[in-house]
Amino acid sequence: MNPNHQDERTRIRQAIDRLLTGQATTSNGSLTAAALAIEAGVHRMALMKRHSDLKNLFYERVRNETLQIPESERELRETVTRQRQTIKGQQAQIEELRQRVTQLTLAAAVLTQRQDTPPDPRPVPDNVILLRPVT
Description:
The termini are far apart. This protein is mostly helical. Helix 1 (about 5-20) crosses helix 2 (about 35-40) and helix 1 (about 5-20) packs parallel to helix 4 (about 50-65). The model has no long low-confidence stretch (mean pLDDT about 85). The chain is built from 5 helices and no strands.
């Protein structure tokens, strides 16, 4: 490891401690990876890529020490909840449409059957002149 890399890791560990004790100096103090990167003075992508183990340690400590759910996890949970509600609504719509298709299929069958049967020929009285022939 080069000294710069080790220095970043040390700053990240110190930033984790400051954020968890509520003594943030440069960030807004939120318990997020972005705030951690700002607090440590490292680029956010460096934290995500090179120091992902420290980021995971941070989230683990947030969960254990503050008994809070990290913001990113909370947002994901809310998204999953919304998606489940959407799926439930779509399943209800699909079931309603299936029932409607069945009803329309039965109605089409009845109408088709009525067209196939000839109408009852009624006797025409002698004093009536038909404008069109009886079919």
